[in-house]
Backbone:
């Protein structure tokens, strides 16, 4: 799912060495994808092509970029209109490129010429990309429920009625940077991949508040009747158009175009059309001062800051795997036994369970558990939702493996157990299941490793494990390659012992269970 | 001890047992002989409820089997008293030799671990395999495995033991060691029913012989007269 270089389940059981080799290959592939030579299209190429490709994320992207309610095939939003004006100024046509918001800059020089999507102007972005002059001014708005605290931004500096405040933000946004830098606040920051997600979670009571750009809440406020703006907008900044470092002419042409759009009033008219206070916008962006680029830190400094965060997230990866997999195995085994030896009424129900969980994406199941269950009054913490989601999804695969294992035990074993007076369940427990477990050890081990990697999907429901932490850190610092190597080493440190452990376990199961199984000392 | 009365059974519209009747007294050995496909094994499997039958009745070791499906709990009780030894041994592959013998007394009868173990070692001694107690079944020869299977059946102290062609899967060298154990049991007064092709063995071990042909009893009588 998340590894670009392999399928999720490869049938032959990977030996430890194969697994590690595969992991290295996957890491190198990802590195090549992310850090390969990016020959950015310069201004002359854009003009020759006749198209300006601009990247944005349409998911939950109002008022910036979002599907038109009347015609979902069409995109609308003030940035769609802005991109059209910009392209017109450059003498070309605009073309939209979809991407995940926090990874949009990675598209530069690959599939996009520029990024136009509420990208806040920061010193780090000044250092890593070419940032245009501001085209929009934003401020941060705190959002809460009408009937619940906090009722003022200042309240965040002391713990709330339920302990630390849980505040949702868009991962990688200025709101997240702001909250994470304010160590004086009693706030647990929860990162989401979309802005609507955090509003939903405030509305259903999972979060105490959300922090986002004021224009976003203004746009969605009517849809969330239970929510209110808490206090006035604060800590503002500007949106910038990003382009690649090696496209200076394109960046300069974008700057000049924005200047003309401001000067002749077309940008003001655009903002007025979108009810975004055009006159105030012009006053703020017209004379915005330049943000100085951040300085590049040494690798040692980078490691000192990043390693503790990466280690903690690696711990989350281990925790998710080690808690969800035993659960998946237990449920899977029960389902397999029920389907093979259970009463006839149970069999179609269990078959349905397996097909539904196997036939729908893990991501959707996690979404359903985390975002839909609160609507019927069952709000699970993200970690618990992730463990349950992974366990249920994998239980479907485990049950099929165990079903095959049970069928592979010779029929004579069952008859022999029965003929000794054992009941059906005693036969299963003492004779059939122990043998089936031995038969299916290799594919089950292989599935454990697959689950280990699939934990990265849990970032969709705010659980930050190693892959997500890497991605956030890499984008925030611009040190994509160095951090990828550190992350790969961390994965290896976890998977190597895992592979050795599973081989030892397999080996152990090949010995007769004998006295160990019946709790007696060996003869 | 054993009384089979007019048992009939069909499989896929073919009559496999037709009005079969026989009787076996306590402490005697009954041999069932006949060509392949004559219904010998099917009859034997009816005796401990591994197969059902359509008409007639079976009384064995104080239990009664009626036509049609049997209630699982009644079968469990019957099988405590009626042991079975299979052609292919069917030893539990994941357990040691000792635990193969121990399992049923511990799980079914709730015999304490130490007692079950002591008695199982005695039984392994009786079939000459005590030194193999901690070995895996797969490391034993066919003849040794079948002797373990006999010890496993004996561990439940069954009133009747059923043998389904116990030496057919063995080469001649190993046949002798298994037959010796069975003959020894017969001398000790164990009630047994043995399905076999081997007439010499049947004559040696059994007191009564039933010959089946195409699902019917062709003839039956004392072993000395029949073979």
Residues:
């Amino acid at each position: 799912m998340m590894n670009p270089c392999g399928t999720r389940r490869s049938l032959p059981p990977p030996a430890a060495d194969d697994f590690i080799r595969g992991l290295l290959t996957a890491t190198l592939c990802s590195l090549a994808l992310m850090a390969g030579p990016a020959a950015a299209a310069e201004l002359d190429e854009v003009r020759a092509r006749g198209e300006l490709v601009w990247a944005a994320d349409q998911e939950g992207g109002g008022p910036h970029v979002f599907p038109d309610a009347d015609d979902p095939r069409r995109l609308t939003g003030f940035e769609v209109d802005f991109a059209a004006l910009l392209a017109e100024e450059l003498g070309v046509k605009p073309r939209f490129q979809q991407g995940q918001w926090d990874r949009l800059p990675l598209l530069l020089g690959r599939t996009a010429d520029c990024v136009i999507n509420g990208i806040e102007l920061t010193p780090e972005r000044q250092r890593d990309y070419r940032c245009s002059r501001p085209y929009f001014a934003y401020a941060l708005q705190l959002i809460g429920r009408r009937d619940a605290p906090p009722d003022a931004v200042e309240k965040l500096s002391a713990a709330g009625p339920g302990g630390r405040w849980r505040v949702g933000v868009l991962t990688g946004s200025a709101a997240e940077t702001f909250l994470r830098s304010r160590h004086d606040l009693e706030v647990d920051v929860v990162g989401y991949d979309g802005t609507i997600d955090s509003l939903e979670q405030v509305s259903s009571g999972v979060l105490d508040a959300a922090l986002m750009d004021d224009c976003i809440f203004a746009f969605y406020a009517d849809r969330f009747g239970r929510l209110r703006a808490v206090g006035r907008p604060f800590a503002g900044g500007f949106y910038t158009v990003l382009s690649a470092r090696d496209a200076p002419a394109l960046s300069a042409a974008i700057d000049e175009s924005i200047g003309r759009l401001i000067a002749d009033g077309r940008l003001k008219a655009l903002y007025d059309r979108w009810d975004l206070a055009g006159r105030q916008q012009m006053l703020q962006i017209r004379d915005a001062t330049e943000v100085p680029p951040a300085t590049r830190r040494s690798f040692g400094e980078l490691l000192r800051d990043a390693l503790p965060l990466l280690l903690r997230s690696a711990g989350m990866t281990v925790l998710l795997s080690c808690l969800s997999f035993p659960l998946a195995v237990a449920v899977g085994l029960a389902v397999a036994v029920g389907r093979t030896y259970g009463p006839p009424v149970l069999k179609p129900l269990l078959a349905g369970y397996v097909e539904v969980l196997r036939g729908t994406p893990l991501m959707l199941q996690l979404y359903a558990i985390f975002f839909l269950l609160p609507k019927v009054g069952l709000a699970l913490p993200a970690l618990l939702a992730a463990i349950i989601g992974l366990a249920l999804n994998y239980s479907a695969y485990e049950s099929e493996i165990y079903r095959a294992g049970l069928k592979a035990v010779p029929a004579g074993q069952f008859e022999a157990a029965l003929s000794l007076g054992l009941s059906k369940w005693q036969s299963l427990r003492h004779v059939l299941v122990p043998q089936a477990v031995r038969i299916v050890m290799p594919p089950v081990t292989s599935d454990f490793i697959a689950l280990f990697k699939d934990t990265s999907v849990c970032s969709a429901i705010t659980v930050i494990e190693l892959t997500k932490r890497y991605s956030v850190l890499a984008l925030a610092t611009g040190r994509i390659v160095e951090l990828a190597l550190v992350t790969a080493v961390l994965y290896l440190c976890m998977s190597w012992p895992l592979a050795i452990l599973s081989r030892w376990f397999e080996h152990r199961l090949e010995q007769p269970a004998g006295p160990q199984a019946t709790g007696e000392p060996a003869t | 001890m054993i009384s089979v009365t007019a048992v009939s059974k069909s499989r896929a519209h073919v009559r496999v047992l037709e009005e079969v009747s026989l009787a076996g007294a306590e402490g005697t050995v009954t041999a069932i002989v006949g060509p392949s496909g004559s219904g010998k094994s099917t009859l034997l499997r009816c005796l401990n409820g591994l197969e059902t039958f359509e008409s007639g009745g079976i009384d064995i070791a104080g239990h009664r089997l009626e036509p049609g499906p049997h209630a699982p709990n009644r079968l469990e009780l019957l099988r405590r008293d009626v042991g079975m030894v299979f052609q292919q041994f069917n030893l539990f592959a994941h357990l040691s030799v000792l635990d193969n013998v121990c399992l049923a007394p511990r799980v079914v009868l709730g015999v304490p671990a130490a007692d079950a173990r002591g008695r199982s070692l005695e039984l392994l001694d009786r079939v000459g395999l005590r030194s193999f107690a901690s070995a895996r079944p797969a490391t034993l020869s066919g003849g040794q495995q079948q002797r373990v299977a006999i010890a496993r059946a004996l561990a439940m102290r069954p009133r009747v033991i059923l043998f389904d062609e116990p030496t057919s899967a063995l080469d001649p060298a190993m046949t002798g060691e298994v037959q010796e154990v069975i003959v020894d049991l017969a001398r000790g007064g164990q009630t047994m029913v043995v399905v076999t092709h081997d007439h010499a063995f049947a004559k040696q071990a059994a007191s009564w012989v039933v010959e089946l042909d195409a699902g019917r009893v062709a003839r039956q009588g004392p072993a000395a007269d029949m073979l």
The CA atoms of residues 32 and 481 of chain A lie 9 Å apart. The first strand of chain A starts at residue 51 and ends at 56.
